[in-house]
Amino acid sequence: MSSKIYVGNLPYSVTDASLKSNFAEFGGVSSARVMMDRDTGQSKGFGFVEMTSADAAQAAIKALHGMSVDGRAIVVSLARPREERSAPGAYSPTGYRASNRPDVGYGNGGFGGGRY
């Protein structure tokens, strides 16, 4: 079982250190990171905590899910793997596509000509 935990609905005042100290009382914490906006440097309101054991992760989830932090009920759950995604107009193993929309392009009734 995974020991990586997603923590959502965090107040903007929460830092990596405070997140780590809150989870440390349930067991060893390998890492704690609050996600920051790269342009503004402000917290995005969520983060990830990696616990050293799955039992400690489950104990932290049960104890902290729904807990109020600065007036906000935080969401604590097991982290899901990141989903694979591709940008429109990008090259993928299946080939190049100008768009993921089937109604865009020549011969589809849009501004480029098409059906009558």
UniProtKB/TrEMBL annotation:
<keyword id="KW-0694">RNA-binding</keyword>
<dbReference type="InterPro" id="IPR012677">
    <property type="entry name" value="Nucleotide-bd_a/b_plait_sf"/>
</dbReference>
<dbReference type="InterPro" id="IPR035979">
    <property type="entry name" value="RBD_domain_sf"/>
</dbReference>
<feature type="region of interest" description="Disordered">
    <location>
        <begin position="84"/>
        <end position="116"/>
    </location>
</feature>
<dbReference type="Pfam" id="PF00076">
    <property type="entry name" value="RRM_1"/>
</dbReference>
<dbReference type="InterPro" id="IPR000504">
    <property type="entry name" value="RRM_dom"/>
</dbReference>
<dbReference type="InterPro" id="IPR052462">
    <property type="entry name" value="SLIRP/GR-RBP-like"/>
</dbReference>
<feature type="compositionally biased region" description="Gly residues">
    <location>
        <begin position="106"/>
        <end position="116"/>
    </location>
</feature>
<protein>
    <submittedName>
        <fullName>RNA recognition motif domain-containing protein</fullName>
    </submittedName>
</protein>
<feature type="domain" description="RRM">
    <location>
        <begin position="3"/>
        <end position="81"/>
    </location>
</feature>
